[in-house]
Amino acid sequence: MRYLLSWHIREEELRRRSPAWREDVVAFLARFEDELFANSELDWVEVLDPESHAVVVGPGAEVRSGFYNEGGKPSARVWGIRVASRERALEVAATLAGQLDTWIEVREILPGAQRP
């Protein structure tokens, strides 16, 4: 089963965190992503530009600064994982949530999305 895990956080939230916290998170993510990869559970990971660099494009090709869900938090990092069960996906997300001290969005990647 394939799942998409998303970490949503605002730039200002990251800036308010201590340098030690940021260093710990970077070290944790490097180790944890390596473990997932070694277990053949990590398909890919993407780190996204901060929201200050985001734009949205609307009908008529109108371009605006900002991210799509301005009422919420922008995506900062996403993981594509391949695991044996939903329970394992939730276990991976719980580990991330605990280390990042936040919620992690978990969504199954449906078979139709796997076309070449």
Layout of helices and strands, plus pairs?
Blueprint: E1 2-8, H1 11-16, H2 19-38, E2 42-47, E3 55-57, E4 63-65, E5 75-82, H3 86-100, E6 104-108
Antiparallel strand pairs: 1-5, 1-6, 2-5, 3-4
Write a brief caption for the model:
This protein has 116 residues and is of the alpha+beta class. It is 35% helix and 28% strand. The chain has one domain: 2-Layer Sandwich (Alpha-Beta Plaits), CATH 3.30.70.
Describe this structure in words.
The protein has 116 residues and is α+β, with helices and mostly antiparallel strands. The chain has a single domain, classed as Dimeric alpha+beta barrel (Alpha-Beta Plaits, 2-Layer Sandwich), CATH 3.30.70.1060. It has 3 helices and 6 strands. The strands form 2 sheets. The protein has a 4-stranded antiparallel β-sheet, with helices on one face. β3 (55-57) and β4 form a beta hairpin. The model has no long low-confidence stretch (mean pLDDT 92).
Q: Over all CA atoms, what is the radius of gyration?
A: 16 Å
- The beta-strand count equals 6
The residue ranges in which pLDDT falls below 50 over 5 or more consecutive positions are none
**And the CATH topology?**
Alpha-Beta Plaits
Just give the CATH class.
Alpha Beta
